[in-house]
């Protein structure tokens, strides 16, 4: 017989929309050296030891000596024999609304790297003695200036982690396949260099684990404070680590901003709407203004970049030897934020920058992002806005600087001087395509893909790591050591 009692429906599993303790845990990890498992000095010694422990050799070779790559008949595209990894193709760009602070050219053609598969850039996090640590890898990349740099736990293309290279498995990759939703700290698709890649996207992830992780020779657990220290040194923390760390949800303690979040998003939407950039792939053989020689594809004027070929040997990679093409920039790049306080609140000047390889027209970029040598032949009116303010900044106004490598798996000797420059006299009403935002606003936007470009994310990683420290521990002044 029925008791007449109707069971109540199960309560919905409602939970808080964000973990409010996480920002406190991030701030504690960012406090310099506090609770670290190893001394930062020992990290430097470990990196040096890993360089000695493995055979690393990168040699330029003529295109004719490439074993697994070939120029495709008809298109002239540079392709891998397997059809995987990436291709070097041509790109034709037309900016219909004209220049927007990036230079005088409305139309151009160039080689471009096309890699449609989404890679994983993943960092494991774990708490030791109450302090969050991040598992960083000493990883060799053929294009990096000193070959081995501090990298994410995992950085792998789909071709790599599905075994297209016929090498060993990618270590620790399983932590980033279908992770426990309760353990995900960061998971967002982000762009890479729109000047050299065609619509390249990687999955940036930070996943916290409570499991025991094997102690491997090429991996070390570091706090954010230690990584912040190493970010002040040239060519130590690689680009993939910087972009992932920039997405950490630091607490925003500022009382306000020049623009409300709604105003900022409206301004950015307006910038995307007013730009009309048409970028289409074309055969590499048909790209105008570029010439192919035995050892390089380069611009007729010798500017911008080259496409070259290298042969590689590396003892600690999934494959110990291979060859491949790389993009080699001509000259050292510059990427800088101008920063000033507005009513006591630090703001950085961002640029809504159009690049041919972007998926969605424009992204927020540093105040200055260019290779200065590409503009020496042009009149002052055609130089990027604020470039001279950055290049001529007195040392007392430079709050951060370091020369950092860009992505070393596709680019050769691609290095930029990253700066944060104090500029209290910078205009509050900047030129079109520029606006002032707080670092907190920029950090919030990294939760969404294709809002903040990779160069701005590098600078944001440096800013966030420094600003999260107690005030007396913040580093000021130049950063070369």
Observed structural traits:
481 residues; Nucleoside Triphosphate Pyrophosphohydrolase; 7-stranded mixed beta sheet
Report on the architecture of this protein:
The structure is a single chain. With 481 residues, the chain is of the alpha+beta class. It has a single domain, classed as Alpha-Beta Complex (Nucleoside Triphosphate Pyrophosphohydrolase). The chain is 18% helix and 32% strand. The chain contains nine helices and 24 strands. It has helices at residues 20-30, 40-53, 158-161, 224-231, 239-246, 261-274, 387-391, 439-445, 454-467, and strands at 56-61, 69-71, 78-80, 87-95, 107-114, 119-128, 131-140, 148-151, 154-156, 184-191, 201-208, 219-222, 277-282, 290-292, 297-299, 305-314, 321-329, 333-342, 345-354, 362-365, 368-370, 398-405, 415-422, 434-437. The strands form four sheets. Strands 6, 7, 8, 9, 10, 11 and 12 form a seven-stranded mixed beta sheet that branches. Strands 18, 19, 20, 21, 22, 23 and 24 form a seven-stranded mixed beta sheet that branches. It is globular and about 80 Å long. Residues 98-103 and 469-481 have low confidence and may be disordered.
